[in-house]
């Protein structure tokens, strides 16, 4: 049997005998460090151990002590769900699957000296430590671009995105709850690709629903940098028109944010003809454009300004620039939507490919991933969108393939319903269990 050193030095040796499976007591032949314990990273870590057993030593480095789910966080903004319902701990991953968890922020990645290994620098409360692995998986989510400020920035910030669940989610909830009848909630949507295509329209709907029930005469104004609703257009368009109407929810496509004035809560927008419009809000919720998480940029994997995400071979999520480094979830540049369900699916494809690589096998040539998403459009109604993607060798990308009809389109709910709202809770529970339990 190969030990790690001979294994590493012989990477790529196609004629070597398979290593799999190893006995429970054997030393691991592959060390994987997963950076980021969110939807994608936690799934990679779990499935590496579930499928790879003791042959793979997995260390999960996460800067927070628990995960806060973005999924369902719009219902925390409206007070329908509690913040604590978004929390997921790492206890099961460590106890049940033997994943080593390190609380800290990865601040550096460099070749590790031994051929094929990587050295990661982790900062835990300012104290630096190092980790070594043959494979590294980067799953740090996204980082938000700064929005140009023309006024005096307020401290603490009053213009929130709440597009990464956490303190901002709770603060936006408080701002919404403090609104007076007749006031205006203004939100802006960044250009594609952004995290969770239906998410902003979902937020617009549930905020409109909250205002309709609690703040007479108040309304939501939505300014979208895109030319139209980017996901579940039929469902959201229908909800905008029939549940709310322009007196409660105004939707303006092709309006890009130029700047904000935090002190006066004013956003300046440019329309398609570059004419400038200043809009004053009582609550201003600006979702800025975003890019791959900082560590992906530190590694030099996502520095393009036009599409600032990491290019990967989607059969393995291995970087096309740095072999041995995989980028999964929202930080990767693929044709898959940036969604938690998809992060979970990509995490499994990545875990499978790493186990195969340790076993000197190529990745699955035709991986599939499914994407399902329920979107509340009020406090009782939800719609859904689902699609199955499969690797397409001709384009080297994942394309939508309806397994039954062969059609290349996502399927969406015909109408929002309370039945869908109930199923949404089950879907969320199942997805989070599949990722964290
Ligand atoms: C309001 C909202 C609603 C959404 N609703 C849905 C939905 O209904 N369905 C759906 O599928 N998706 C939804 N999404 C999208 C989904 O949340 C994201 O696509 C998903 O979380 C991406 O997973 P990820 O693992 O790439 O990133 P994340 O889940 O953000 O996880 C990244 C993790 O990495 C950690 N990290 C970052 N950098 C470092 C570092 N250097 N060192 C250590 N740790 C680090 C972070 O702390 C974080 O825990 C929604 C998003 C939002 C904002």
Structure description:
The protein has 437 residues and is an alpha/beta fold. It has two domains: 4-143 and 292-365, FAD/NAD(P)-binding domain, CATH 3.50.50; 148-288, 3-Layer(bba) Sandwich (FAD/NAD(P)-binding domain), CATH 3.50.50. Helix content is 26%, strand content 29%. It has helices at 4-9, 39-52, 73-77, 91-97, 167-177, 199-214, 233-244, 294-298, 340-358, 418-436, and strands spanning 30-35, 56-62, 67-68, 87-88, 100-103, 105-111, 118-124, 127-133, 135-138, 142-144, 184-189, 219-224, 249-252, 256-261, 266-270, 276-280, 283-286, 290-292, 310-313, 318-319, 325-327, 332-333, 368-376, 382-392, 397-400, 411-412. It has a five-stranded parallel sheet with strand order 5-2-1-9-21, with helices on one face. The model is unreliable at 1-22 (pLDDT under 50). The site of flavin-adenine dinucleotide has 36 residues, from helix 2, strand 2, helix 3, strand 6 and helix 9.
Topology:
Layout: H1 4-9, E1 30-35, H2 39-52, E2 56-62, E3 67-68, H3 73-77, E4 87-88, H4 91-97, E5 100-103, E6 105-111, E7 118-124, E8 127-133, E9 135-138, E10 142-144, H5 167-177, E11 184-189, H6 199-214, E12 219-224, H7 233-244, E13 249-252, E14 256-261, E15 266-270, E16 276-280, E17 283-286, E18 290-292, H8 294-298, E19 310-313, E20 318-319, E21 325-327, E22 332-333, H9 340-358, E23 368-376, E24 382-392, E25 397-400, E26 411-412, H10 418-436
Parallel strand pairs: 1-2, 1-9, 2-5, 9-21, 11-12, 11-17, 12-13, 19-22
Antiparallel strand pairs: 3-4, 6-7, 7-8, 10-18, 14-15, 15-16, 19-20, 23-24, 24-25, 24-26
Residues 35-41, 61-64, 67, 70-71, 73-74, 105-106, 139-141, 163, 195-196, 199, 293, 295, 329-331, 338-341, 343, 373 line the site of flavin-adenine dinucleotide.
């Amino acid at each position: 049997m190969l030990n790690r050193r001979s294994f590493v030095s012989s990477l790529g040796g196609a004629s070597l005998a398979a290593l799999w499976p190893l006995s429970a007591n054997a030393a691991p032949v592959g060390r994987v460090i997963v950076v980021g314990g969110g939807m994608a990273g936690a799934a990679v870590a779990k499935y590496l151990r579930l499928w790879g057993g003791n042959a793979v030593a997995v260390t999960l480095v996460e800067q927070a002590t628990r995960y806060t789910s973005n999924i369902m966080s719009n219902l925390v903004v409206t007070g329908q769900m509690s913040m604590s319902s978004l929390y997921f701990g790492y206890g099961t991953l460590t106890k049940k699957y033997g994943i080593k968890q390190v609380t800290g922020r990865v601040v550096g990645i460099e070749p590790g000296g031994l051929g094929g290994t990587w050295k990661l620098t982790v900062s835990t409360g300012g104290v630096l430590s190092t980790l070594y692995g043959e494979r590294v998986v980067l799953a740090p989510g996204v980082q938000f671009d700064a929005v140009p400020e023309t006024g005096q920035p307020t401290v603490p910030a009053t213009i929130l995105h709440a597009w990464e669940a956490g303190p901002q989610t709770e603060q936006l909830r408080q701002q919404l709850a403090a609104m007076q009848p007749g006031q205006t909630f203004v939100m802006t949507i960044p250009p594609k690709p952004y995290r969770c295509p239906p998410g902003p329209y979902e937020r617009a709907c549930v905020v409109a629903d909250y205002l309709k029930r609690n703040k007479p005469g108040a309304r939501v104004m939505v300014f979208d940098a895109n030319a139209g609703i980017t996901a579940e257009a039929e469902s959201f368009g229908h909800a905008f028109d029939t549940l709310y109407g322009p007196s409660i929810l105004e939707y303006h496509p092709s309006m890009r944010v130029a700047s904000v004035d935090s002190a006066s809560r004013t956003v300046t927008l440019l329309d398609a003809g570059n004419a400038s419009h200043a809009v004053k809000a009582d609550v201003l919720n600006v979702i800025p454009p975003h890019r791959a998480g900082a560590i992906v940029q530190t590694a030099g994997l996502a520095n393009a300004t036009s599409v600032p995400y990491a290019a990967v071979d989607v059969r393995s999520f291995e970087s096309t620039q740095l072999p041995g480094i995989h980028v999964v979830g929202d930080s990767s540049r693929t044709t898959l939507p940036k969604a938690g369900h998809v992060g979970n699916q990509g995490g499994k494809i990545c875990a499978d490919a790493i186990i195969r690589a340790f076993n000197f096998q190529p990745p699955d040539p035709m991986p599939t991933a499914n994407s399902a998403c329920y979107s509340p459009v009020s406090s009782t109604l939800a719609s859904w969108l689902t699609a199955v993607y499969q690797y397409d060798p001709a384009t080297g990308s994942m394309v939508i393939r309806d397994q039954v009809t062969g059609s290349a389109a996502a399927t969406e709910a015909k109408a929002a319903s309370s039945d869908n709202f109930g199923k949404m809770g089950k879907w969320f529970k199942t997805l989070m269990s599949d990722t964290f339990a």
